[in-house]
Amino acid sequence: MHPLTPLITYSNDHFSPGSPPSHLSPEIDPKTGIPRPPHPSELSPYYPLSPGTIGQIPHPLGWFVPQQGQPVYSIPPGGFRHSYPALAMNASMSSLMSSRFSPHMVPPPAHGLHPSGIPHPTIVSPIVKQEPTQPSLSPEGNSKTPVIVKKEEEKKPHIKKPLNAFMLYMKEMRAKVVAECTLKESAAINQILGRRWHSLSREEQAKYYELARKERQLHSQLYPTWSARDNYGKKKKRKREKQPQQQIQETGNFVASKNKKPCVQYLSAEKSCDSPASSHGSMLDSPATPSTALASPAAPAATHSEQAQPLSLTTKPEARAQLSLHSASFLSSKAAASSSGLTSQPSLLSRPLPFSSIAPTALLTTPPSFAAIPSPQAALAVLQAQPLSLVTKPTD
DNA sequence: TAACCTTTGAAGGAG
DNA sequence: CTCCTTCAAAGGTTA
After folding, report:
1. 3-state SS class at A369
2. Which residues pair with A35 in a beta bridge?
């Protein structure tokens, strides 16, 4: 499918399996307990920019011209050769950097700069799906100076959002799932991936969270003035009348997440190849009984909550609902106990459970015990079977 | 041809 | 602070 394997650089050799928390902990924001952006000095080892990577920035359309006084990429006629000033060059060049953010930032590298050539740049050519014209600009285009300048600015390449943990995971695993399944629709594949994501072990998810964090760091370093808001409107607006929340309220079905097409449509189709997945990633075609893989005699009680919401305490309504349903057991679990800050810091609930906030020992000693529930669907069924009224506020 | 679908997570704006 | 919206990838499907 993909001529080039995306996320090549995200292979395990960039991780030290099982070690994420150890180097994450120092980056916890003392205030929030959330992993904070590292100091620039911390960044270089992860995202060292090679002359090549800088050189991969696309055409100097003028958007590189320092804006707001930021020191940025002054592009020599021959292309970028200088390192990004804010970042130290390092021989150990993170391939992440070169592959994720650079590939298409550059005209074909004269000296073979992007070995990976991974086709999923953060920056895409300005030609890509830009609004046909700049509405804000005068259609006549008679004036020049201010308009042109503005035009130049608006012509700046579309800087894409950095991929989040799940997106990174999807890129890495999609090919596998596609290969294992007969399915081809991305929507279906994504559903499978979503379930497998939840079945990943904490350690494995931590890898992707960490990667995503690094991506964001690098992204922010490369494009200090970029805002996610910049991309708003770049995509055609969806023509959905009903918002997910509205739908949920209307239906009263707290599990009917997102008001999207019934998952059944895809899930039923992918049944054949979808497996509850394990943390081994090699169980794409494993039977529907993951128990053998993850058989963990201990911790049967925490199974529900972990299965339903193994890691992410997202802001999604359904997720919160699930969390609420199981908050008691969840909070009484070992993981919860290890991250005692959870209860005292509500803000933590609004984002993925920061791995760095979890004691490394907890990450390592609380293996996902999904075995008790045969499948995510089963877990969901359990959740659905529990009336909301049963929600009890966890009391300590 | 372009939007939709589907997933999770991040970010930003509104209230 | 909470809630909501948008976008990120991807490719078959649909209008």
Report:
1. coil
2. A28
Q: Angle of helix A376-385 relative to helix A186-199, nearest 10 degrees?
A: 80
Tokens of A215: 């991506």
CA A140 – CA A138 distance, rounded (Å): 5
Please, what is the Cα angle at A142 between A139 and A144, to 5 degrees?
110
Backbone Cα Rg of chain A: 23
Torsion of CA A24, A203, A281, A270, to 10 degrees: -100
What local confidence, expressed as pLDDT, does residue A181 receive?
85
Q: Is the CB of A194 under 7 A from strand C?
A: no
Chain C positions with an atom below 7 A of a protein C-beta are 1-13
Query: Do A33 and A345 form a contact (C-beta atoms < 8 A)?
Result: yes
pTM above 0.70, yes or no: no
Identity of the residue numbered A164: N
Per-residue pLDDT for A220 more than 50?
Answer: yes
Q: Which residue has the higher pLDDT, A20 or A222?
A: A222
Q: Report the SS3 class of residue A128.
A: coil
Point out the residue nearest to C11 (C-alpha to C1'). Answer: A186
Residue keyed to tokens 């006084």: A69
**Model pLDDT for residues A245-304, shown as the tens digit of each residue:** 333 334 443 333 333 334 345 555 444 464 443 333 333 333 333 333 333 332 333 333
Whether A57 contacts A242, CB under 8 Å = no
Distance from chain centroid for Cα A296: 28
For the CA of A185 and the C1' of C10, the distance in angstroms is: 9
Average pLDDT of the segment spanning A132-138? 37
Looking at the C1' of nucleotide B5, which residue has the nearest alpha carbon? A187
Structural domains of chain A in order of their starting residue, each with its CATH number: 8-228 (1.10.30.10)
Query: What's the CA–C1' distance between A219 and C8, in Å?
Result: 13
Q: In this structure, is the CB of residue A5 within 7 Å of any atom belonging to strand C?
A: no
Residue A300 main-chain phi, psi, to 5 deg: -80, -25
